[in-house]
Design a protein that fits this description.
Elements: E1 2-5, H1 13-28, E2 33-36, H2 43-51, E3 54-57, E4 67-70, H3 77-86, E5 89-92, H4 96-110, E6 114-118, H5 124-133, E7 138-140, E8 150-155, H6 161-171, E9 177-180, H7 186-200, E10 204-208, H8 214-225, E11 230-233, E12 249-254, H9 260-273, E13 278-281
The protein binds iron/sulfur cluster.
Iron/sulfur cluster is lined by residues 12-15, 72, 95, 97-98, 157-158, 185, 187-188, 215, 256.
Length: 282
Amino acid sequence: MKMKVAQSAGFCFGVKRAVNLAFEIAKKSKKPVYTLGPIIHNPQVVAQLEACGVRAVNSLSGIKKGTVIIRSHGVHPRVMAGLRKKGIRIVDATCPFVTKAQKAAALLKSENRQVVIVGEAEHPEVAALKGYAGPNSVVYNNNHFKVQKKLGVLAQTTLSAGDFIEALISFGRKAEDIHIINTICQATKVRQQDTMRLAKDSDVMIVVGGRNSANTSRLLELCRKAGRPAYHVETERELKAKWFQNCSKAGVTAGASTPDSMVKKVVDRIKELSSNHKMVKL
Ligand code: SF4
């Protein structure tokens, strides 16, 4: 069986930056060090950081001192203000592309538009974006909402271009005046294109990444849209030999929060599970 790994598989620029910063802070800073939520949607990396003394917490309410690392998804401006008020040291690892989306949300709000964020309401990046877009903003994920005359639209950075266009078609024409800012990050676009290309050329696709990673789930959806059997695994231990039976070409892709070391473990395990493999880098 031949195997190809998507060129863009693994950590993106923003995740690499946030994770490196977290390990650096863990080494240099006096404890306690926290992240608000896991630094990335990958339980294995979060466990490694925990071992270095960086604790992921869900709320900052009990925290009175130390350092808080803001992860690549960014946070609601209210959270930043609260940390400053408490005098807690902030290390901001918000991805610059997410910062760009936050600025876009604030700009659309300043133009007195109803701001629509196309994405998943429960995703932390979107929850933070809402803070910049204002209380009248709406998160659109195929839901109905009352479209106002003046609209401002942006996207969750990891949305697929196809989903953004579909959303614009569904509600955009109801507005009289619309300002659209495409905030999908380039790394996401390239990864999704690579994955689609690879899926079309493979008999089976393996998508590696955390189960709570939105961009990894989107890659799985894309593989299935391409009409290929696709399986989502967090680690190599979940792979099953039967997935590769009667396959001559397998493709491997991975979400933005998947370390290269995990991609390698998955690739090595697929090699073990299938005989006569031949590895090709896209
Ligand atoms: S996927 Fe894009 S926006 Fe998100 S962290 Fe990576 S580079 Fe930044």
